[in-house]
From TrEMBL:
Residues 5-207 form the Phosphoribosyltransferase domain. Pathway: Pyrimidine metabolism; UMP biosynthesis via salvage pathway; UMP from uracil: step 1/1. Allosterically activated by GTP. Pfam families: UPRTase. Its EC number is 2.4.2.9. It comes from Desulfomicrobium norvegicum (strain DSM 1741 / NCIMB 8310) (Desulfovibrio baculatus (strain Norway 4)). One of its GO terms (biological process) is UMP salvage. Its cofactor is Mg(2+). This is Uracil phosphoribosyltransferase. The keyword Transferase applies. It is an enzyme of class 2 (transferase). Signal peptide: none annotated. It comes from the Bacteria.
């Protein structure tokens, strides 16, 4: 598994703004989408292209087109929806596969409540979206769900990850690539990332 930690100044700056304790729902939502857009740029850098001939204004012209697997974007409900618009800005034709998990607050185990995957998922590259990778339980369950459906090409985009969660996913799924804006220090006793962003779902949906 490759872990790509973004070092682009725009990503760092925007993530810094998201860490402020008094950020508004509007600003948090906008920044989540903007950082997701920038992470998408990084996560698609190695997509293969092939040459095709197009009819240009002055006659035939050779152009590059993306080759290979089509993409399905996989937002993990709820918080992953906050990244979806930014990703679809760059990949507007992607199908969306929605996966719903919430984390039991006491056991920290993921509880599945919704799955609706794109057709022919075995022929697609899956781009999982979730702002937070904490213990890794939710991501592990999502990856297993995609693999059970036949998906063989999986990448994940996250705003903040904890070292504990990254280690768990690296060991369990060496075939999955992770793109993250920042790797923070650790988890607290309630499984929240420090310094982190707090509860990303609540901040995106304004439920706190
Ligand atoms: O790595 P883990 O320890 O599994 O934790 C991460 C998960 O927790 C949060 O979701 P939450 O359960 O708060 O649901 P929400 O998106 O509905 O707020 C977050 O968005 C991840 O999905
Ligand atoms: O820090 C965390 C951990 C899990 N879920 C969140 O929203 N934030
Ligand atoms: Mg939440």
């Amino acid at each position: 598994m490759a872990v790509f930690v973004a070092d682009h100044p725009l990503i760092k700056h925007k993530l810094g703004l998201m860490r402020k304790h008094d950020i508004s729902t509007k600003n948090f939502r906008e920044l989540a989408s903007e950082v997701a857009r920038l992470l998408t740029y990084e996560a698609t850098k190695d997509l293969e292209t092939e040459k095709k001939t197009a009819q240009g204004w002055a006659g035939p012209v050779e152009v590059d087109v993306i080759k290979g697997k089509k993409i399905t974007v996989v937002p993990i409900l709820r918080a992953g929806l906050g990244m979806q618009d930014g990703v679809l800005d760059l990949i507007p034709g992607a199908k969306v596969s929605v996966v719903g998990f919430y984390r039991n607050e006491e056991t920290l185990q993921p509880v599945e409540y919704y799955v609706k995957l794109a057709k022919n998922i075995s022929k697609r590259m899956a781009l999982i979206l979730d702002p937070m990778l904490a213990t890794g339980g939710t991501l592990d369950a999502t990856i297993r769900c995609l693999k059970n459906a036949g998906c063989t090409s999986i990448r994940g985009l996250f705003l903040v990850a904890a070292p504990e969660g990254l280690k768990r996913i690296t060991e369990a799924h060496p075939d999955v690539d992770i793109y993250v804006a920042a790797v923070d220090e650790r988890l607290n006793e309630n499984g929240y990332i420090l310094p982190g962003l707090g509860d990303a779902g609540d901040k995106i949906f304004g439920t706190k």
